[in-house]
Specification:
69% helix, membrane, single chain, Amino acid/polyamine transporter I, CAT_C, transmembrane
Length: 608
């Protein structure tokens, strides 16, 4: 009996939502086009980081090779973006990674994914609002901060030095705008994004006009001479500022910079939450994800190139690199143009963080996993209750909390969602074919080697095998990332055991990739499909897990507390009110009713 109860409980947690659930109708207004989505993706991704991150990474990690750091980060981000793009083409509905995991791997992991997304969006919204408030306060001479520090200082551990009323008011204002209408908010977003792009074009053109290619060819002697005014140990100077040239910190520094630059491309996933508000989602969603990532890469590449051409990398300012660079080349007044662009970038980034949050809340509430009032939609098709609720939570966090310690938690939530979407692509593409999809066939590819020849079509057995291989692959990736981190630290001590473990786990992963590759894929076509399966999704998973492993222990403890709160909500409320659970119980009851009918009952029904 206990085994039966455990089995039924596990089944209830792994239940999957159908792609087209019976009785579910969209209440959103399909009013967004491809340009709206591109502006949303670019605005959300190309935030204030482009004005700050370039200087920080170039000075401390990569020097002029920061352009290669951004290229590597962009390629890594595209891996995740392609996985989102295929799901956007296959499942054109609201919910992003939450919905993708629900239709692929089951309800519990879907809830965990949705809860992770909410964590990312809430902290992202609050932190960007605080950055907007701080930037504006700097422009007016610190009037706001001085007033509240003198009259409303808090000084409690974990809380901000003073309540940032301006940031909280900004969040509430934009929440009201988003609740009023989707189209109106996207029009404003397009204006801010356009201004931001124009400012970045100005920065790029100015940098190439006033730049000097010799700043990419600085000698080691020049670095030492320029930075040893107050330093007697030249070896220490070289370790601090590199050895000059295009790779002053070596290629290892370029890779370290790429890990930081990866976060500059986070934000495109907000496009995936708009599936039910787009006129042609199967085409617009994948196109806009790829295009927005390309535009963001070009912007980061151009600005970082211009910045390192304008002045030596070791003289760059970490907090305000562009204004300092323009002062260096004699264009001091240009810093006001940069300030305008920075505020516009923060505005679009704030809208980009706030836009998807209520839509994930709505999707989870519609499925019964969160509270029913969150499904209320206005006449214009906006999820008003979910928008206002999420805005109030983000405003309270911006008002009271010191978010510096929480920002890394946002990275965990985003990277977890990216990882699960990549895993879901693997599982979905190798699922057994349904009968109604037999007319949509992908041309079958065949290897020249007969011993690697796969079966012609997938079935439940091959799908189950691929799922098991995928789970083993994910375990291998996690083990590989942990041991790789240890191996990098152990290289200085020449500890061979960690390198041996890395080789073993890497070999297991390669074997799993080959075994998955031999199995047949689902023949259902989509307007966009991830290439190079199964290698590309697993490579994306490796990058995401490796970055997660680098985060500190305190961050993981805070994340565990957040997840504990979410699981309590799920097991107390979500499990009982799951719409899919009720749907399956209804279907089961109908089957039992039909099977219990006698021949006489069936004859009576046929007479009527």
């Amino acid at each position: 009996m206990p085994c039966d109860l455990l089995k039924s409980f596990l089944v209830s947690l792994s239940r999957r939502k159908p792609l087209e659930p019976e009785g579910e109708q969209s209440t959103f207004n399909r009013c967004l086009g491809t340009l709206d989505l591109v502006a949303l993706g670019v605005g959300s991704t190309l935030g204030a980081g482009v004005y700050v991150l370039s200087g920080e990474v170039a000075r401390d990690n990569a020097g002029p090779s920061i352009i290669i750091s951004f290229f590597i980060a962009a390629v890594a981000s595209v891996f995740a973006g392609l996985c989102y793009a295929e799901f956007g083409a296959r499942v054109p509905k609201t919910g992003s990674a939450y919905l993708y995991s629900y239709v692929t791997v089951g309800e519990l992991l879907a809830f965990v994914t949705g809860w992770n997304l909410l964590l990312s969006y809430v902290i992202g919204t609050s932190s960007v609002a605080l950055a907007w408030s701080g930037t504006f306060d700097d422009l007016i001479g610190g009037v706001i901060s001085k007033y509240f520090e003198e009259n409303a200082a808090m000084g409690l551990p974990g809380l901000a030095p003073y309540p940032d009323v301006f940031a909280a008011a900004l969040v509430l204002l934009l929440s009201g705008l988003l609740a009023f209408g989707v189209k109106e908010s996207t029009q404003i977003n397009k204006i801010f994004t356009a201004v931001n792009i124009l400012v970045l074009l100005f920065v790029t053109i100015s940098g190439f006009i006033k730049g000097d290619i010799s700043n990419w060819q600085i000698s080691e002697e020049a670095v030492i001479n320029a930075t040893t005014i107050n330093v007697t140990d030249t070896a220490n100077v070289t370790s601090m500022f590199g050895v000059g040239g295009f790779f002053p910190y070596g290629f290892g520094g370029t890779l370290a910079g790429a890990a930081t630059c990866f976060y500059a491309f986070v934000g495109f996933d907000c496009i995936a939450t708009t599936g039910e508000e787009v006129k042609n989602p199967k085409k617009s969603v994948p196109i806009s994800i790829v295009v927005s990532l390309l535009i963001c890469f070009l912007a980061y590449f151009a600005v970082s190139a211009a910045l390192t051409l304008m002045m030596p990398y070791y003289q760059l300012s970490e907090k305000s690199p562009l204004p300092v660079a323009f002062d260096h080349v004699g264009w001091g007044p240009a810093k006001y143009v940069v300030a305008v662009g920075s505020l516009c970038a923060l505005s679009t980034s704030l809208l980009g963080s706030m836009f998807p949050m209520p839509r994930v809340l709505f999707a989870m509430a519609r499925d019964g996993l969160l509270f029913q009032p969150l499904t209320k939609v206005t006449a214009k098709g906006s999820p008003a209750i979910a928008t206002i609720s999420s805005g109030v939570v983000a405003a309270i966090m911006a008002l009271l909390f010191d978010l510096e310690a929480l920002v890394e938690m946002m990275s965990i939530g985003t990277l977890f969602a990216y990882t699960l979407v990549a895993v879901c692509i693997l599982i979905l593409r190798y699922q057994a074919s349904s009968s109604e999809d037999t007319d949509l066939k992908i041309p079958e590819s065949r290897t020249k080697f007969s011993f690697l020849k796969p079966p012609s079509t997938p079935n439940s057995s091959t799908a189950r095998t691929v799922t098991i291989l995928t789970i083993v692959s994910i375990a291998s990736v996690i083990a590989l990332c942990i041991t790789l981190t240890q191996a990098i630290e152990a290289l200085t001590n020449m500890e061979a055991w960690s390198i041996v473990l890395v080789c073993i786990f890497a070999l297991i992963l390669v074997v799993n990739i080959l075994l998955i590759w031999r199995h047949p894929q689902n023949p259902t076509k989509a307007s966009f499909m991830v290439p190079l399966l199964p290698a590309l999704p697993l490579l994306s998973t490796f990058i995401n897990v490796y970055l997660m492993v680098q985060l500190g222990g305190d961050t993981w403890i805070r994340y565990a507390i957040w997840m504990l709160i979410g699981l309590v909500i799920y097991f107390i409320y979500g499990v009982r009110n799951s719409v899919q659970r009720k749907r399956l119980r209804t279907d089961h009851t109908e089957i039992e009713t039909v099977s219990s009918k006698t021949d006489k009952d069936i004859l009576k029904e046929e007479k009527f």
